[in-house]
Amino acid sequence: MCGFIGQVSLNNIHPDLLNKPNDRIICRGPDGCKKEHFSNNSVNYSLIFNRLRILDLSTTADQPMRSIKDKSLIMFNGEIFNYQELRKKLVNQGSRFFTERSDTEVILNGLDIFGKKFIDQLRGQFAIFYVNFEKGEILLSRDRLGQKPLYYAINDNTFSFSSNLKSLAETIADQQIDYSQITNYINFGVVPSPHTPYKNIYKLEAGENLIISINLDNFSFVKEKYWSPVNFIDDKTFETEEFFNIFTDSVTLRKDADVEVATFLSGGIDSTSIIKNMYDSGHKINSFSVSVPNSKYDESLWANQVASKYSTNHTSINVSSNLSFEDIREALSSLDEPYSDPSVVPSYFLTKEMSKHFKVGISGDGGDELLGGYERIVKTVDYKNRFLDIFSKVDYLYPSFLGSGNRFLSKSKDIDTRYKSFLEDRKFLKLLDLDLVTNNNFLTLDNRFSDYKNVLLKEYSFFLSEMMLLKVDRTSMKNSIEVRSPFLDHKLIEYIFSHNTNYVNHLEPKQILKKYLSSDFNNKFLQRKKQGFVFNLEDFIYNNKNQIFDILNSGEISSYLNMKKLNLLSINKSRINSQRIWKLLVLSNFFENS
């Protein structure tokens, strides 16, 4: 368990997390744990940090970390990739360092000198708690893309925060489920920020700061967005060479560690491009992939080709089609909030295998968002047949137990309707007799810009930060693996949004990367249909239907949801209905373990 939790109290009663009867709030970091329990200017602090050592392996770099003059303190989960460059700048500003290679101390000294504006200089992934004792001010900051989670709550003049939701929930007496957000989960498959499944616990949004002023008898809060792709939209001339220079820099920075680094290899265009870049730069490559028995979902053939071409030290693990409930529960134990993407299972077991030998994995996450690789992006933007709009009008006739209605709604002439049809399941809400949450604008597009950039903006603000990166972070952190993703470098993202889209070919997504790989692979490799990182969910669900339905009908979930129509989902045995049953199984598991 990596990460941190803390409480800051204005009460006379000193908060002490270590005395809580909670096995999630425990000092058990994979590479050590440090705790602080103290008062400063009548404000009481209780802090715990579980460490995964990646940079500066010495205990000097442990957290919580205090500044040399004891004016401030920091806890930070993540990695800053340009820390060496920033350290040199800070030394020139007069900063003193007591560690050799700690990026944590770089953030601490930078915030001491420049305040919250220093966050703009960080190139990395992070969840930060920083307190300046002299100013009586706390800063919480989450990275631009939301790679690292950060939760907070205020209760009885106690400010609580954590990088793990369930740990935080268990510090709060009489914590209650927010059922309106459970409805959002049923619709989207995740509870979108700033909400959580719990009342009065919130999630800091991607690219957001929370500044807390500590007064004599209360806390005052200011939230601010310090970064968003929308602020960089322009129409400059796109230069392929310039793009790849940034990409190479991004890959190289993510190789820096004081432990050995491995690379995820799906055999897809994104992970292959990263491995090619590393190979061309002379880096040693350790690669990991997943194979599954069903050829419909297996990409091991392609991954093996890549491993052979670039002479990687390759490991492939098999995720059986006969997964047991124990396997599923183990994978779901990595989640601290309900999340319905079944790829959490292979992701969990892949990082589990990788963790036997490595602490850092480089992944291709973010490539589809950066370069419009998802089918839904193409189908939303490349809309020509407007007479098909008539099909979207008959969506209300489509029975809820057959599917989400995407096949109809994706034909709408309204771009919002087309896009939402790929990421919502309002039919499932109807099947369960649930009402859509009002003021639900998580997927509403900003139509000030071109359709393509509009959709990319929503991919970053919703799908990537709320869904994809949640899975990546939780499964890897559960197994003490830090995942680094070159395509998520904000400099690459800013470049894409600030330049024209002449490089985009909707009929051939990610053409720029395919050209990059074309000298090493044939068209059969480059032009194949994109596959998801999944396992055979249908077989698991329908082979275990009776046991799953028993769990759902007897669990807490049945007191909230109308399960009378559940059997309809097994009459029509389809991928979408197996995903719906899976969604309920994940929610049931969350209730049982909350």
Short description:
The chain is of the alpha+beta class. It is built from 23 helices and 17 strands. The chain has helices at residues 83-92, 103-114, 165-169, 179-188, 240-253, 269-280, 300-309, 325-332, 344-354, 367-371, 375-381, 389-392, 406-409, 415-423, 426-431, 451-478, 490-498, 511-517, 523-526, 537-543, 545-554, 568-571, 575-592, and strands at 3-9, 33-40, 43-50, 65-66, 72-80, 124-132, 137-142, 151-155, 158-162, 202-203, 208-214, 219-225, 261-264, 286-291, 313-318, 360-362, 482-484.
How would you sum up this structure, described in words?
The chain is α+β, with helices and mostly antiparallel strands. It has 3 domains: 3-227, Aminohydrolase, N-terminal nucleophile (Ntn) domain (Glutamine Phosphoribosylpyrophosphate, subunit 1, domain 1, 4-Layer Sandwich); 231-373 and 452-526, 3-Layer(aba) Sandwich (Rossmann fold); 536-594, no CATH class. The protein is built from 23 helices and 17 strands. The chain has a 6-stranded antiparallel beta sheet. Strands 4-5-6-7-11-12 form a 6-stranded antiparallel beta sheet, with helices on one face. A 5-stranded parallel beta sheet has the order 15-14-13-16-17, sandwiched between helices. A hairpin with a 2-residue loop joins strand 2 and strand 3. Helix 5 runs antiparallel to helix 17 (490-498), helix 8 (325-332) packs across helix 9 and helix 20 crosses helix 23. The two termini are 17 Å apart. The mean pLDDT is 89.
Please outline the helices and strands.
Layout: E1 3-9, E2 33-40, E3 43-50, E4 65-66, E5 72-80, H1 83-92, H2 103-114, E6 124-132, E7 137-142, E8 151-155, E9 158-162, H3 165-169, H4 179-188, E10 202-203, E11 208-214, E12 219-225, H5 240-253, E13 261-264, H6 269-280, E14 286-291, H7 300-309, E15 313-318, H8 325-332, H9 344-354, E16 360-362, H10 367-371, H11 375-381, H12 389-392, H13 406-409, H14 415-423, H15 426-431, H16 451-478, E17 482-484, H17 490-498, H18 511-517, H19 523-526, H20 537-543, H21 545-554, H22 568-571, H23 575-592
Parallel strand pairs: 13-14, 13-16, 14-15, 16-17
Antiparallel strand pairs: 1-3, 1-9, 2-3, 4-5, 5-6, 6-7, 7-11, 8-9, 8-10, 11-12
